[in-house]
Amino acid sequence: MVALETQFLELLTLQPAVWVTVQAHRGSVPREAGAWMAVFTDRTLGSIGGGHLEWQALDQARPLLSHPSGLSARRFALGPSLGQCCGGEVTLQFEHVNASDLPRLRQHFAAQQALWPPIALFGGGHVAAALVQVVGHLPFLVHWLDSRDGIFPLTLPANVQAEHSDPVQHAVAGLAPGSRVLIMSFSHAEDLDVLAACLLRQRLRGDLPWIGLIGSRSKWTVFRHRLAERGFSDAELAQVISPIGVPGIAGKAPEVIAVAVAAQLLQTIRSTKDI
To answer: For residues 138 and 116, what is the distance between their CA atoms, to the nearest angstrom?
Structure first.
């Protein structure tokens, strides 16, 4: 689970809350089904879309903290009466929850997380470390790999699993099907070996929908030549994205690159309808 879900469950051990979830929607709406907000006596976590809709939901939820009832649902039309012009409608479910609901909620969030697309991140350098902090708040399951000992931070986001693998390219065979692969190791030679292992897996299994290589266009030109010498065709090499990151974002600071790459990864989810 990501940090928000973890914080919700930790707070729930101390005090009850009203869990507000988007159950259904139609037309243009600020958040999709599954979005949630937890209302505690002194704070809220999460969001169902902000604006007047969220204010109305808070107004409905707060009385339920002291007067619990069963599940209730209410439909909201996002029109002039709410001061919003989306034009769609949202059905919200309100549920009083407490510590006794923790097993069920943990199971719910774990089931949702199991549907998230996997990322295989090769390399533990500055850009990778910045990227992990960004995707730690996004719907991905991250498998972070490096051949060096002691490279990973002691504390990782809840959706990130780190693994030491030497030689690191041997880990490619065990990646989860559907992994988006990001290659940004400390060594160009290691990058090349990981990339070749990914292309071989693609040749045999075709289950890595996105392969990205960090670096300049000149680096990719050199890599293309070397991979062609290893027998990879133009069609196979066309599967590689390099340089990585959405275009139009200036700056080479690790945090800037991380945001650009995270945005590109989110585009892969939208295009393949994974979530």
So the answer is: 9
